[in-house]
Structure formats: structure tokens, C-alpha cells
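From the pipeline queue, job 12 of 40. The input is one protein chain; the requested action is below.

Action: predict structure.
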Amino acid sequence: MKAFTLQRYSKTDKLELVEFPEPSLQENEVLVEIHSASINQLDSKLKSGEFKMILPYKFPLILGHDIAGIVKKNGSKVQNFKVGDEVFSRLPDFHIGAFAEYVTINENFVALKPKNISMEEAASIPLVALTVWQALIEKANLKKGQKVFVQAGSGGVGTIAIQLAKHLGAFVATTTSEKNFDLVKRLGADVIIDYKTQDFENILTSYDLVLNSQNQETLEKSLRILKAGGKLISISGPPDPAFAKEIGLNFFLKFIISLLSRKTRKEAKKQNIDYSFLFMQANGKQLSEIRKLIEADIIKPTIDKIFPFEQTNDAINYVESGRAKGKVVIKIK
């Protein structure tokens, strides 16, 4: 099969399109012919080596976490899928490989593709939607009437977060540039702040929840707009000791992570804010619940550009530029 591979950690090296062995099928796995995959910031961070301490991969490595495609073969113990099923998935850590023609996936991380969207739209969903689901529903237990601040509302995570938060009955504020005001308004945002000309810290107050996806300065400002007892969930760091424990890091790495987040945790505690870091986990059951919301037109994908498979490097560069509205997808089949 054809696949884009990475030979080493590098910010500047391009992925190489090569012939790669078709993956072998285990008894609990499905072999999926990939029709589309999407690009995530996580792919760029892995490529540059930013996460090599906590996600140490072997090379050559096929990047890519999100796929949509068709089941071509089943392992002997697969129960929930049959050959010919259209599926989508966020591939689990240490078993990624979306930038290729085929991938094997444990069936626990797979869900049937929503019937009312294309393969390209389906591939845009898993990582960002699972991130939002695990933040707003699992960690925050967001309730009707609560106020939530979603940073970068026109980005991949932001476009889904606004829609799910509104479905849960929340009041939603977000930041974006003026050219994207119409987009986030259509998605349901109640308060829209132009991050280029306005400071959200001077506009928002007494919020119940912040979904932080930006830098440390933005995180510190976000702490100040929350009410006492509010929650700040960050998907961009700094990671906290609970995360280190959850993924089973050794004592040294737990200590390093504790130091990285010490200032943030101390400030949050001082203001009676619950700070936590979220590193999303692949989950087929949750993806099935998200599928129901998509088929009910409660959540709709937002795609900026679709690149042909051969232009995967261009797609990655476009995501890294920070200009994308919603998701960037590569069409493989």
C-alpha cells in the first residue's frame, strides 16, 4: 500500500510517500480501506517531537489519527462490524497511521459512519468531537444554563464545541477573527469576540467553564473570567499530575509534569478554580453517540479544504499556518 512516512522527529522534514507493507490483521481488528483522513495539530506536534517523552513512537512512522473508510476484512473475533460497513475512527495512540491506503483498528475504537455525511466530512470528526465530548460531558458535566467560553471558535475543536455546548443548553462565548463571525454565529455562539481588537478578559465575567486551546497567557486570563468553583479544562497544556498518572508515566516524568503545571495549578487553587488537562482518548462507544448527534443534524462538520492524498504535506503546512476554519481533510480513495 502507499503511505506517507516519517523517518525522524523534525519540524522541517517532509513526509515521504512510499510503498509500505499492508498491516497484519489481529483477531479483534478490522482492516479498513481508508477513503479520507483529516489533519490535526496533534500530527504536527508528534512530527516535531513535542510529545516524544509521553508518546515515544518508533520509526518509520505513519502519522494520522482520523479516518473514514470501508471495512475490507475482519479478525476472527470481531463482533460489531461486517465487511462493507462504512466506518470512522480516531485511531488509538501507538496504533495510528491514517495517512495511508489501509489501516487495522481494534473494533473498540471504530463506529459506523453517519449516514448523512460524506467520507470527507466523517474523517473530519473523530478527534475533535471526542475531545469536546470528553471535555464538556465527562470532565465538566456541563449543565443547561451554564456559561462556557470556547476559545478559537472557528477552529476544528471550537466549531464542534460550540455546537455541543448549545445542544446541552449552555450560553456560549467564543473568540475568532471578524471574518469568521458569521460562521460561529451560525454554529450557535451567543457572544463573539474579535481576538485581534478585543480582550476577552475585559468582556467576560463569572463563567462556569473555559475550554482552553491556546497559550499560557490566554490560560492565565481565562482563570480570571471564571466564577469561584468554575472549571478550566485545557487541551493545550500544561499537563497535570492526574494526566501523568492516567497514562502511567514513570516517577521522573510525573515529577517533570508536576513542575510544568505547578504555577497554573497554584493560581487556580488560589481562585477556587478546578484546573485539569485533557488528552483525548480514542473511544468507539462515544463516537457512536456522536454519530447519533450528527444524524440528527445537531452537530455538523465544518471543513475548510480538501487536499488530494499526494498533497498531504501541503495539507499539514496549511494546518500549521493557523488559517484553517474547521478541519482540513485529505482524500485518499
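Job complete. The chain has a mean pLDDT of 96.
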